[in-house]
Amino acid sequence: MNDTSDSTHDFDTEQWRTELEEKRTEKNEFFAEHPQSPVPPEEREAFEALEYFDPDPDYRVTATAEVHEDPEVVLMDTTTGREMRYLRVATLEFDLERADEELEDVTTELAAYQLESPNQEPYFIPFRDKTTGQQTYEGGRYMELAADRDLETGDELVVDFNLAYTPFCAFSETYDCPLPPKENWLDVTIPAGERVE
Length: 197
Prior knowledge:
By secondary structure, the chain is mainly beta.
């Protein structure tokens, strides 16, 4: 999550676009050069850049949070056939104005999770949409939203799908990645963030 005080009303599109492109450049450098890159060492020399949809501020939306005081355990299947335990800590509701050519002003919900063990980790949002398995990785994509404080019901926050990324297991079988649960399968098209060739 971007800072909860960051709203669409005082949004500088050009600055946002510049910062987004800088983040993408940094990530490409990490994938190409860093020892912890998910790209196998023998493939890094041939790695050029990740694929992205063009930056689109229409997929940077304001969501309203519903916080679950007694969060339920969600068992997420993983790419290696295991299960990981998460807590469904919040539900985020937002409108997507350009989510699909036939639909406008679609009210959509996504669940936000945290690992069951106590931690200060960001809110984890795995999801699928109509690009999954076609323009984007077949196992879905992720977003991580780092709040500047604990969320409360009714809080508004910015969710930027331009920051949606492909899990590391798409690049190497040595990683085990949770798969988005069905409650986070969106029946809309979100052409924003990372894509596949």
